[in-house]
Structure formats: C-alpha cells, structure tokens
Amino acid sequence: MLVKLLSGDSPRSPLLALILLAILIALAFAPFLFPGIRSVDTAARICIFIVLVASYDLLLGYTGIVSFAHTMFFGMGAYGVALASVHMGRGFDALAVGTLAGAALAAVFAFLIALFSLRVRAIFFAMITLAVASAVAVLVSQLSQITGGEDGLTFLIPRELTPAFRFGDELFGVRLNGKLLNYYLVFLASLALFLLLLRIVNSPFGRVLQAIRENDFRAESIGYRVVAYRTTATCISAAVAAFAGALYAVWIRYVGPDAVLSFDIMLDILLMVVIGGMGTMYGAVIGAVLLLIAQNYLQELMGLGAGAFEGVPILPELLSADRWLLWLGILFVLSVYFFPTGIVGRLRQGR
Amino acid sequence: MAHAEQREAPPAGDEVAHRPTMTRAGLTDRLAPWMPFLLVPVLAVLGWLAIPSTSSWLTLTVSGLAMGMMIFIMASGLTLVFGLMDVINFGHGAFVSVGAFVGVSMLLVLANMTEAPSLMLNLLAMLAAVIAAMVATGALGWAFERVIVKPVYGAHLKQILVTMGGLIVIEQLIVVLWGPEEIYILRPEALQGAVTFAGAALEKYRLVAVGIGLALFIAMRLVLRRTKIGLIVRAGVENGPMVEAMGYRLRRVFIGVFIAGSALAGLGGVMWGLYQELITAHMGQEIMILIFIVVIIGGLGSVEGCFIGALLVGLMQNYVAFLEPKAALVSNIALMVAILMWRPQGMIPVVKAK
C-alpha cells in the first residue's frame, strides 16, 4: 500500500526515509506541534515550495532542461486565483475557476515556448524562458488596471478559510478556525500534487524522460519522439507550478509582482533543487525544507554575525542579512561542482 | 555569377561540345542569403510608415541604432564564445554591470576633466574610463573562465546553472563594494545636448555610440576575415577538432576570445551606463534579456547575425516604445518568435561540421 502510494520509488536509504517521515509528520501536525503564526506560515510555505520545486525537478532533474520561467507559471496560478476572486466575488467556485484557468494558461504558454525552442536545440529554452519570464513580469507590473501593477491585488477568500470562521473551541490549545482549515487545504493539496508527480516520474513516461536526459540522440534513435516528450514534460511541470501558485495565493491572500513573479523565487527554486538533489523528487522535499527554514531563521543569525564584526572593514557588509543572496550564490556554484547529486544522492550512496 | 560569364566566353576550338547549361538561380534564391541584411532597412521603412512625423522618426532611428550598436558590443563576445567552445555564459551580464561600475567610478574620480567644457579633456576622461572598465572586465573574464566555466566544459546543464550562480555572486559583490544605491552619472560636457538635423534633435552621445559600434563591427570583421587569428577563430567555430589536429591550441584562442568578449561587455556597460545616465547592480541582468534575444535571432555563433539582430532589436524597441510604451519588451519577444518561425536556427545559422 505504502509502496504503491509512493509509486514504487522508495527512499532507498534508512536515514533518508527517517528524515522524510519526520518532515511529513512535522508538516501534517504543524499547527499543533509548532503553534504560532510565523511557524505555521513557514510550514505552509514549505508545503507549497515542495510542490513547486518538485515540478521544477521534473524539468531540470528528470528531463534535463533548464527553465527560468518557473516563477512565471507559479505567478499565473496565483494571479488566476486573485483575478477570479476579485471579479467573481469570494467563493470556492472562484478559487476553482481561477486555479484551472491559471493552470491552463501556464500549460499553453509552456507549450508555445517549448514549441519554439525545443524544436531547435534545448539550450534555446533556457534563454527564451528567461526573456519571456521577464517580459511577463514587466507587463504584469505595467498593466495596472488589470493586475494592480506593482501594488498587486488583495482579495477575499471564502470565509471558511479565514481566521474569522470558527467551527469549535480549542483542540490541544489550538483554536479551531478557518486558518487551520486553510493550512490543511494547502497541506493536503500539496501532498496530493507531490504524489502525483512521483507517479508521473515513475511511470513509463518518466523513464523515457530520464533516457532523454541521459542521451537524447539515442532516445530519438530508439524511436521516442524527443520533442514531444520534452514538450509534454514542460506542460505538466508548468501546470503543477501554477497549482502551487494558486495555493500560495490562497494562503497569503495577496498577489504582487514581488511576491509571486520575482526572479529571487526562481533562484530559490534552483538552489532547492540542486541542494536537495536533482533527479529525485525527494530532493525537492529536503531542499525546500532546508532552504526555507534557513531563510526564515538563519538570516537573523547573519545579522548577529554582522553585528559581531562591527568595525572590521568589509566583513559586516558581507555578513549583513541583505547579502543573503551572495552566500546562496556561492553555495549554489559549489554544490553544482562538488555535490551534483545533492543531499539525497549522497544519502543513497552512503547506504 | 561565374557560370554566366563562362557562357559568354567565345568557344575555343573543339571544346565547344562541352558546355554545361546552368539556369541562373531565381531572384528569391539569390536574395535569400541577403534577406537578413535587408531586414534592417525594411524595419526602418515600416517605422517611417507607422510614425507620423519624420523628425521624430529620425530621432528614434538614431537612438535605435545607437542602442543596437551598444547591444551588439555586449553580445558579440557571448556569441563567439558559444560558437567556439559551445559554452553558454549566463554570467555575461555581470561583465556589463562591472564594466559600468568601474567606468563610471573612473569618470566620477576624473570629474574635473568631464565637467570641463573642453572636448579633448572629456574624451581623455572617457578613454580612461573605458580602458579601466575593459581591463577590469577582461581580468574578471579570465578569472571567471578559470574558476567558473572551465570545470564544466561540455555539460550545458551545469554551464547554465553555474554561470547563473556566478552572475548572482558578482552582482552581490558589486553591491558590497559600491553600496546598494543606484548611481547617477552625467555625460561629459561635450557629449551632452543634441544637434539638429532636418528638424530632428539627434543626441550627440547617440551619434558617438553609433560611430563606435560601427567602427568596432568593421574592426571585428577585419580581424575575423583578414588575419591569421581570425581565420583560426572562424575555423574553430566551424570545426574545432580539425583546427586542433592541425596543431593550434584552440583552448588558448578560446581564452583570448573569452577575455576579449568580457572586455567588450565592459565597454558596452560603460556606454550603456552613460546612455541611461544611471547604473544599478542588476543592470547587467536586465540587458541580458535583450542580449539573449539578439544572439538567438542572429544565430548562435555568428557575429554578422548578432550585428543585424542587435540593430533590429534596437530599432524595434525604440519604435514600439514611441507608439505603445507598454509593448516595448513584448515586441522584441514577438520579433524573436517571428524570426524563429522563419529561420529556426536564427537568421545566419552557423554551419557546424560534425
């Protein structure tokens, strides 16, 4: 049963299994284990990013294509929900319509981009996605009548998902309100999407993708239509990213270019995939958990470090919390060189 | 056409019998190789038809050409590096930023020279800034090649990831060294203002930029077509292993090209910074978008294609920004899509011997 649920892709390392189990339990009971607005918020973000990173891994790790438009797809889902909620009024139907419309738009965009670039050479894809993603981000912040411009959109989600909705008193000291329901909506949807991705990569389709990653010429010679497979993978990945974006929008009840379309999110995704381990879905879990926790709590530590070196010439500058990205970049380059299989790869090796 | 002349030559003795008849290629076939070159005037004419007043069209055309020349300067290194070693450098934009910051700092140091109303002093200050920027980015390019690019030869996926990481690190280092604020810079005194020609105001600086770009393109073409090193580079682009088999160390040539390309990106950065009169650490990342579009539509590895692509992008950007400001970047994407539909490998595809 469990093996079937994981699509036969077991962690294959006792330590990895233990870590994944711990993460699953922690996320499943996060509101009870770590009460507090901030920690529950972190847990929800982790859920969403696991899906987002896993969908990116389908592209980067399994198919061997680099895309820089993943935040664009993420943003399409988020803006879909926001625009539907603004124009259709609050309600679950608006959420559903927005999510599906966002995912469909993302898939269509992915299809068109893939058609134009993958047909010729896979390397075009990275450049074209970068260009299209930045054009879309600029457009979104310019078309302020539709998208709210730089300010973004704040919208109402169904009352059942807001803290104002109560359906009981307290359970283990946690208020039973709509926020809790919202968290579990995010958690369960993320879990389902993750298992779906796991299913996809372990299907015959996923095997072909891996073959293409290893040697596209040979895969073509054996008789698989490489372009069709790559395009399909791109579309699936885009649609799942849009679903993650929709969940994110429901959770933070706001969309804006900085929150859902910025290039920083793209870098985070890249880093999570690489550190967790390219080419394994579990890498996405580990990478997202590590990075987000580090981002939320380590930045403060860096601030402390900067304070400690007050007076030394450049050190405080280098350690200030704003230079977070610098260290991420260095970490990123180093892990691509010395750690290409990521944490999951290492754990499986050391078995 | 050679065979056409042959036909007119008087028959000599018994060789009359052998006279192969070749039909002249049709007009479209003969025009095909020149089509990309014709696109630039075509776009300019289209712009003239779309823009109501001729004087604003002239202003826009000059600024479009200036922008295109600057993009060409920045993009040429990237396309050659790809052609030569199959290395795609996503960190190229970092050189643009670094060049701009070094050059502008130099100009700020030499403020008394740039503010003086003498053309000579101004040009000297500019020259100093450009040299400083090119030396800095050239050295940085060398280090970048050594540290970041060398370990990942032959692996496109890793190249993209690693050079992207390098871009982030360099950008952040710029912020550490120069601070997070954007820097405003005035152009040297003699390059401010505009000249009026046929009722259109043409900024002096843009004319200078067009001049520098054109000179660089011609120089680059001469080096590539007329010198030994240019021959090796072109041969390397077409068939690297063969050039190596003939005893040339292609790796050294490649490092040279990488350094030269980085230095050109630095030069482009200074020019771009003075064009915008504003520099930020992530300017390189923004220009990278245009550079990529140019390199793709030109055909990866082709300098001529890169030049035409840059002019097209520059003109398109300026015309559309005048007609419908919000569509400027999107129009360039549309241009890229249109050209890829026409020629999927780019306008002037580089034929690789494989």
Q: How is the secondary structure organized here?
A:
The complex is a heterodimer of chains A (about 350) and B (about 350).
Chain A: H1 2-5, H2 14-28, H3 30-33, H4 37-63, H5 70-88, H6 92-117, H7 122-142, H8 144-147, E1 153-154, E2 166-171, E3 174-177, H9 178-201, H10 204-214, H11 216-222, H12 226-252, E4 254-255, H13 257-261, H14 263-276, H15 281-308, H16 315-319, H17 324-338, H18 342-349
Antiparallel strand pairs in A: 1-4, 2-3
Helix pairs in contact in A: 4-9, 4-12, 4-14, 4-15, 5-6, 5-12, 6-7, 6-12, 9-12, 10-11, 10-12, 14-15, 14-17, 14-18, 15-18
Chain B: H1 2-8, H2 27-31, H3 35-50, H4 54-85, H5 92-109, H6 111-115, H7 119-149, H8 156-178, E1 183-184, E2 194-197, E3 200-203, H9 204-226, H10 228-238, H11 240-245, H12 250-276, E4 278-279, H13 283-298, H14 303-323, H15 328-342
Antiparallel strand pairs in B: 1-4, 2-3
Helix pairs in contact in B: 3-14, 4-9, 4-10, 4-12, 4-13, 4-14, 5-7, 5-8, 5-12, 5-13, 7-12, 9-10, 10-12, 13-14, 13-15, 14-15
